[in-house]
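User: Hi! I'm working on a homework problem where we have to compare a predicted structure to a textbook description. Could you give me the structure for the chain below?
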Amino acid sequence: ANAPSFSPDGNQVAFLMNTTGVPQVWRVPADGGWPEQVTFYDEAVRWVHFPPVGAADRFIFGMDRGGSERNQFYLAARNGSEVVDLSRHPEAIHEWGGWSPDGRRVSFSANRQDKSRFDVYVHQLGPVEKGNYSGEDRLLCQGPGGYFNAGEFSPDGTKVLVLHYPSNSNQFVHVLDVATGEDRNLTPHEGEVRYLSPKWAPDGKSV
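Assistant: Happy to help. Predicted structure tokens:
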């Protein structure tokens, strides 16, 4: 059991567990109790995330097909029903970034335009009615090549953290402006330096 995510009201915890043979989404009351399985796929679920605010009636999860590692991400109702494909690009790999503070947008990275390059996108959630979806993606910044992985939104929702991986032993931390796509490298350096798991300070003024 791993990768827990609190519901917005703090009463539930969604997580991944492979007791059925492949990782699926489960949930359990935050104060303890018997876990309940929520998704029932033959494919492995890669991540699960509740939105940070709002009703705890929806969550996003990631999954590939046939072990292809081309992760897609899906919006589902709290009980795992009404699943909507938000990525809609099965030929591309999608990497989770984070929710915006208002729970209306998500950041992610994908190699849709060039299989050797990950770009950063922002997805605007739209209304979901009986499986129909009307949201849209916006290319925020084209990556320099290789892994350019979106991270979390700033506390005010105006910026997104990004990790650029020229190699496994060398990373750069970037900040993207959500409105303009302006890219700022916070950690220019020569040689190999590792930066892992950057997080915003609560006031959004530092990382």
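For your comparison, note the following. The chain has no helices and 18 strands. The radius of gyration is 17 Å. Good luck with the assignment!
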